[in-house]
Amino acid sequence: MTTTIPTENLLSLAQTYGLPLFVYDTKVIDGQIQKLRSAFDVPRLEIRYASKAQNTISILRHIYNQGCGIDTVSPGEIVMALKAGIPSSVISFTPSGVITDEYAFAIEHGVHVHADQPYILEWLDQHYPGTAVTLRFNPAIRAGGHTKLQVGADGSKFGILSSQVKNIISLTKKLSLKITGVHMHLGSDISDSASFDEAYEYLLSVAQIWADTIDHVDLGGGFKIPYHPDDHSIDMISFGARVSERFNRFCADIGREITLVFEPGKFLLSAAGYLLMEVTNVRTEGSVPMVYVQSGFNHFLRPMNYGAYHHLINISNTNGEIQFYDVVGYLCETDTFALNRPISEIHQGDVLCLLNAGAYGYSMASTYNGRPRPAEVMINDGQATLIRRAETIDDLLRTDLGVNSE
Ligand SMILES: Cc1ncc(COP(=O)(O)O)c(C=O)c1O
Hints:
globular
């Protein structure tokens, strides 16, 4: 991990906007988009940012302005993308196991749909004959940084299983739908490019079946980025060269140039985000000093949900002596951010900065324990803008119809 953290700037944002606070730096997002683009040498490349990673409208708009489309998984995410001014022609919809009404919503809004279950294909044929559809396949390969993220593994709930392919072939022959693409998403935090190559080879073999009608192959997202200072990222250059070579051969085989699509979430957003939290207390009794912060897994779930490592920096005392701390949140559960973690000396009132907070941070945040969600600030061209205000307790009560009844 070689990121330079703008600590002075973050401290001043903490003072201006209060804590806890999410901050996103668009320079990092743009750099990641550029890194991805320059790694591939194919006639047509499309990046469809997986908006589940972070779907605040200003961020979506920024990413679209960098030339990317958006992948969504719900009507809510479709509306967020449309509100960002993103045309439906570059929005796709890749849900899982949803009611057909959601497909109707996507199609009525002009959004391209992905399907991975026969019931969806049959319903689309009946209600929207002739619709263009991308088929999502399950490559049956276990890859990804955590078992909960290995969504392309055999038997996972996602994608058409290899045992279903024959049925899907006869179904699509019978139905009026136009199969315009094939798709897979292996999982998240994937650095093992061998599993990716294997899955991709499988997808291309399936793509041959619909070679006459497809105009894109979508390889999903899941690229690993570093979390720990000694961690590594996927080697995008060699990965890109291999994928491009194989994809170009595929295009030559089918005699047409089609589009290669990726749906990265974490790769674009993770390192762009910081979560700033105030230290409320340092308990020195016990085997390891314990640092309490005014936040918790209601704001940032990944350490508790996936055991994810997120680096922590004391931006109030960056040059202090390194000591080991447990860092915990304020929720009434164990709520652990880090155990026995080396951090420069911490005092009550200091500001801790959690790194890689850009992806699956705010978008997974909740109001658990009756706690409003934090504000969000975006830094663009060195200019900080509040892009989402902090919630209030009134926001929490807004949908509760018991408020005014005795
Ligand atoms: C269909 C699909 N595409 C893309 C992604 C993005 O994955 P990542 O954020 O790991 O790149 C996901 C994440 O769950 C997904 O489900």
